[in-house]
């Protein structure tokens, strides 16, 4: 079955389906999301090679373009071939945890998810379903790589673990993925579905310092480690976070993950989507994604990029933007702000419903038509 056909069909049905009674709509889309992703990762589209002007080399790694999937799309190391064939600038698996997790179930919905089609946004309360660090590392080690589409992994400590044990498990995970020859690691410090959305700064500093000492300062090969924070991060914290990461030998910062600022974002939700939005956020909570986060991700990632440029560190350190990426205009805004890479999730699926497997081709064609080529 072709995922493009399913997505186009859904784009016709979705505006009406989300107006079903909210509990039914959530159950419907929670199941449909699982089915669609299974179909998507098993498709083998015609290969698209992005135009050479969009390639950039960061940390010595060639990225074919400055945009690729965010964590959460391919949790278990599946989907590399379809993503690379479509023309993604990189591929990010995970987020993985020490122990396999089945994810959240509540109110009759397994892995609760809801789209807000008029708003270009979505909610999820998945609960980090994944097969665990060891299994995903094994899968990534076996991948056949495509030039210009490096492999990254998003990881976090097991929510079940605490103290030094949790830190040791995370260090072990980084060693596992190093052995699997991943090209970069993203450390998830921002998951709203596992209690990480608003990490205490002291706890964060101690955790990152431990990993710096145990792993980063002992690296035997260039293996960039980026730390991902929430789009709910206070702008006043950005410089302190960048300073911390630079001091501890990290290689980049990503703003950000999904948001839990439900009341603040509600005004941006279209009236047609609000009944479902209100039901989901009051019943499940979870994280908001998509267009609602566009301004926050741009502001925070821009502030980080500007501060890094001002400090002129003696090694590479990059700012990455995640949240609300959906158009060539977004890529251009990021580039003007000095943001090095963009990750998309909800915007990818919104565009996939129109462009199918040509999703990256169409995005970069739009960029060329607008006269945008990354600096």
Protein topology:
Elements: H1 3-17, H2 22-41, E1 56-58, E2 61-63, E3 67-69, H3 80-86, E4 91-96, E5 105-106, E6 109-110, E7 113-116, E8 121-124, H4 133-141, E9 151-155, H5 163-179, E10 184-188, H6 201-214, E11 225-230, H7 238-247, E12 252-257, H8 262-266, H9 274-283, E13 287-290, H10 294-311, E14 318-322, H11 328-336, E15 341-344, H12 346-355, H13 359-369
Parallel strand pairs: 3-15, 4-9, 9-10, 10-11, 11-12, 12-14, 14-15
Antiparallel strand pairs: 1-2, 5-6, 7-8, 8-13
Brief account:
The chain is of the alpha/beta class and 375 residues long. Helix content is 41%, strand content 17%.
Q: What does this protein structure show overall?
A:
There is one protein chain. This protein has a single domain (3-369), classed as TIM Barrel (Alpha-Beta Barrel), CATH 3.20.20. Helix content is 41%, strand content 17%. It contains 13 helices and 15 strands. It has helices spanning 3-17, 22-41, 80-86, 133-141, 163-179, 201-214, 238-247, 262-266, 274-283, 294-311, 328-336, 346-355, 359-369, and strands at 56-58, 61-63, 67-69, 91-96, 105-106, 109-110, 113-116, 121-124, 151-155, 184-188, 225-230, 252-257, 287-290, 318-322, 341-344. The strands form four sheets. The chain has an eight-stranded parallel β-sheet. Strands 7-8-13 form a three-stranded antiparallel β-sheet. The protein has a two-stranded antiparallel ribbon with strand order 1-2. It is globular, with a radius of gyration of 19 Å.
């Amino acid at each position: 079955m072709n995922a493009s056909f399913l997505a186009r069909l859904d784009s016709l049905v979705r505006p009406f389906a989300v107006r079903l009674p909210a509990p039914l709509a959530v159950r419907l889309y929670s199941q449909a999301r699982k089915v669609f992703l299974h179909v998507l990762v098993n498709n083998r589209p015609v290969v698209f090679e992005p135009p050479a002007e969009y390639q950039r080399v960061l940390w010595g790694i060639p990225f074919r373009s400055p945009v690729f999937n965010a964590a959460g799309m391919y949790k278990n190391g599946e989907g590399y071939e379809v993503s690379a064939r479509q023309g993604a600038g990189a591929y990010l698996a995970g987020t993985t945890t020490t122990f396999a997790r089945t994810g959240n179930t509540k109110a009759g919905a397994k892995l609760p998810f809801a789209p807000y089609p008029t708003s270009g946004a979505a909610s999820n309360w998945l609960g980090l379903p994944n097969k665990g660090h060891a299994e995903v590392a094994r899968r990534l080690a076996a991948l056949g790589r495509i030039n210009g589409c490096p492999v990254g992994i998003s990881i976090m400590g097991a929510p079940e673990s605490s103290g030094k044990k949790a830190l040791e498990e995370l260090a072990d995970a980084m060693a596992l993925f190093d052995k699997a020859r991943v090209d970069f690691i993203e450390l998830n410090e921002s998951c709203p579905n596992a209690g990480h959305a608003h990490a205490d700064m002291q706890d964060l500093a101690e955790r990152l310092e431990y990993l710096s000492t145990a792993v980063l300062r002992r690296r035997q090969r260039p293996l960039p480690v980026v730390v991902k924070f929430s789009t709910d991060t206070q702008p006043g914290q950005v410089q302190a976070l960048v300073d911390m990461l630079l001091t501890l030998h990290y290689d980049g910062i990503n703003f950000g993950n999904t948001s839990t600022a439900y009341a603040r974002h509600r005004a941006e939700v279209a009236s047609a989507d609000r009944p479902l939005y209100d039901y989901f956020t009051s019943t499940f909570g979870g994280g908001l994604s998509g267009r609602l986060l566009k301004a926050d991700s741009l502001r925070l990632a821009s502030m980080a990029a500007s501060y890094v440029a001002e400090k002129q560190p003696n090694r590479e350190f990059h700012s990455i933007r995640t949240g609300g990426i959906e158009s060539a205009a977004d890529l251009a805004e990021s580039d003007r702000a000095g943001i090095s890479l963009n990750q998309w999730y909800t915007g990818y699926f919104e565009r996939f419903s129109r462009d199918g497997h040509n999703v990256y081709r169409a995005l970069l064609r739009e960029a060329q038509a607008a006269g945008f080529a990354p600096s």
